[in-house]
Amino acid sequence: MSFYPEIKYDINYARENLRWNGWGAYDHPFLLEKQMPAILKRLHAAIGIVDSRSTPSIAQERLRMPSCRLKRSQLAALERILGRGQLSTSRLDRILHSRGQSYYDLIRIRNGLLGHWVDGVAFPRNEATLLKLFRWAESNRCALVPVGGASSVVGGIEALPGKCRSVLALNLQEFRGLLSFDEESRIATFGAGAYGPLVEAALNQRGYTLGHFPQSFEYSTIGGWAAARSAGQQSMRYGKIEDLIVALRIVTPQGVIETLRAPAQAAGPDLKNALVGSEGIFGVISQVTVHIRPLPERRSYFAAYFPDFSHGLAFVREASGLGLAMARLSDAAETRMLEQLAYAGGRSGMLARVKQSLQDRFLRLIGMHSQRSLAVIGVEGERTECDALEARARKALRRHGGFFVGYGPGRSWLRGRFNMPFLRNHLMDQGIGVDTMETSVQYSKLSQLHQSVLQTLSAATRHNVSMAHVSHSYADGACLYFTTMFDIDERNPVDQWRRLKRATTESIIAAGGSLSHHHGVGADHRAWYSRTYGKHAAALLAAWKRDLDPGGILNPDKVFNRAAKGDRQ
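RE: above sequence
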């Protein structure tokens, strides 16, 4: 059963079909691919790029990959543990498991600048094999990096060896599928390696949904969502992943931990929430048990304009208590960018230009000038429930100066919500870098943080256009998601990114924002962990890791660990 038309349920995840230097599968195209010349023309103008240029990736065969550090005897021992065909040292497998999907990952792999490589990839079939691998890794000083969909954008799977001599990726594709389904309790258990579309396919055919739809949904796994503490686009209705998880099963070098399957408990600190977001440093998540809900009878998504970002924020604050599925608010810069992409992706010619001019004049006439902000609002559930929610939302938006502009933009957003990451593949081929940063902050600090980070982004690169939107909102604050598009410094793209990342993160922390709302910490944010949460919090995590992973083999130098020589920062 294919309930959600925007989901591609039949993605071919064969490794030879996955792009090694970009997002997604080779046979999964960007929806606006034919409109790219028009899109590039508008983006070049917005960024300030005068002369367009081609910046293609190097050929795969030109990548300089170090030799595998594992000896023949070690490879033979691994094959005995894993079984025939469950260990790979192939060039493609090493490439696919040595990078995530951040801009920093891709600019390095595309230019042959990646400095850390896994020596091989293991495909364990069960927990018993994982325990044997842990013992082998401890005695052979080999780091183990768990990999689900390899979609981390914060260096979560960077092949850092820590104090080990070699690095082995643990691909969890064998831990997949629906393992149990309890309709009476409305919970289901999945293998951690199940990709998003496979999770929804299994639930949809039974009349249910998880309701967790991060933008990476089609190329990320349920275990990865748990490990990185991710958030879906409809978290206002369904909750973040930690709200959806009932229990976890995690395999550590000291044995298996399974958290209690109970609706609530008061038996000391919540172990489940201590393990959600642990990013593979304590153990390998093998099973995830989650709450499920009946498929919504109706989904209604529509758009509204507000005179400016502050009017839109007032609406978002109220909307957080209305029971909506989503209230996504773009600032003025992102609103202009979305309008430009919509115009470039639509019809061209004189009639299109006339229509655009008339739309702009009408918006100005009703008070929506150059600082206007666009909101995409969604409701889901039973039909009568959706009718009531939509009526309340439209009343609230009018109260805050908003203007309802119809369902078309909402349908368009739904149709392309998982497809936009493919745009970056094309932009990086044409000299345009794209990076994103996100944080959560209380409403009283949100406007100042928004302005401060945009100023930082504007100054970080020579030519750029930077923007933000509120992606998730709560009673006391919201998540701000920043995007910057900039002219790639071809002479030194790595230093360009490092300056950008450092300056932006410092700006976020100085303004009172969190280190991350849903991307995680990984290697990229690790340097700021103690500053954000305090040295005692880092010491507590270090104590847990020493107890569960005394050999230091699991995903070294992530989250809080001391920086290693030559790491990502």
